[in-house]
Amino acid sequence: MSGFSINLAGVWVIYRTEMMRMRRTVWQSVATPVITTALYFVVFGGAIGSRIQHVGGVKYGAFIVPGLIMLSMLTQSITNASIGIYFPKFTKTIFEILSAPLSFAEAVLAYVGAAATKSVILALIILLTATFFVPVHILHPLWMAAFMLLTSITFSLFGFIVGIWAENFEQLAIIPALVVTPLTFLGGAFYSIDMLPQPWRTVSLFNPVVYLVSGFRWSFYGIGDIGVGVSLAFTVLFMAICLTLLWWIFRTGYRLKP
Q: What is the Cα–Cα distance from 63 to 193, expressed in whole angstroms?
C-alpha cells in the first residue's frame, strides 16, 4: 500500500487494554496518589509552611503544588509505560506484538499514549485535590497544558525504554525509586533553588528535574528558577533523545528478540 497509513484498530486495542488496567487498579492508581498528596500538604504545608510563609511572593502551600504534580507525573509516566511493555516480555507475548501488523511507531504510540493519558488524568486529579487545601492560580493555562503533555509523553517514552531494558522486577523498579524520586525531591519541587547556598545552587543546575519543575511552576505563578524557554528546550531535547533510542531499539531488536 502506497502512502502513509496507520493501523488505528491495532493501536486502539493496545491503548484500550492499558487503560482498562487503570480501572482494575483504581485504588492503587488514583486513590493512593491522592491520599499521598493530602499528606504532603499536611506535613509540608503545615510544618514547613508555618516557618516559610511565602516563596517568590507565593504562599508556600501553593508554591509546592506544581512540584507535587510533577513528582506524580514523572513517577506515574515511567511506571505505567515500563510495566506496560515489561509484562508482554515477561509473559512472552511480546512476540505476538512484534509479529502483528503493527509498526514500531504504532506500538510505541499505543503504550506511550496510554501511559501519558493515565499520567495526565492523575495530574488533573491531584490539581483538583490541591484546590481543597490552598488557593491555586494558573496564570498561563496553555503553557501548563503544554508542559503537562510534553512531560507525560517524554517520560512515558523513557519508561517504555526502561521496560524494554529491565530483565526483572528489581530493575523495573530501580529507576523510579532510586533515580527519579530523589532527583525530584532535590529538583526544587518543595523549595526554590535560589534558597540554596553556593555551590549547591550550581550543582542543582545539573539536575534535569529542576528544568521541568521550574517551567511548570512558571506556568502557574509566573516565577521559576530557570527561564521557561530553557525548560521547554530541555524537555523537547530529552524527548528527541528518547525517540532516537527507541528507533535504535526496534531497529536492532535490543532485548526484544532472542
A: 13
Per residue in 85-113, pLDDT tens? 998 888 888 878 877 788 888 989 999 99
Q: What is the pLDDT of residues 201-222, one digit of tens each?
A: 888 888 989 999 999 999 999 9
| CA-to-CA dists, residue 243 to 36, 37, 81, 118, 201, angstroms | 32, 31, 14, 20, 31
Amino acid at 172: L
pLDDT band at 145 (very low <50, low <70, confident <90, very high): very high
Maximum Cα–Cα distance across the chain:
66
Phi and psi, residue 51, nearest 5°:
-100, -35
The reported pTM is 0.89
> Judging by beta carbons within 10 Å of its beta carbon (0-12, 13-18, 19+), is residue 229 exposed, middle or buried?
exposed
Asked whether residue 139 carries a pLDDT value surpassing 60, the answer given is: yes
The predicted pLDDT at position 56 comes to 80
Q: Which grid coordinates belong to 113?
A: 499514549
Q: Which residues contact 156 (CB under 8 A, 6 or more apart)?
A: 77, 78, 80, 81, 111, 112, 113, 115, 116, 119
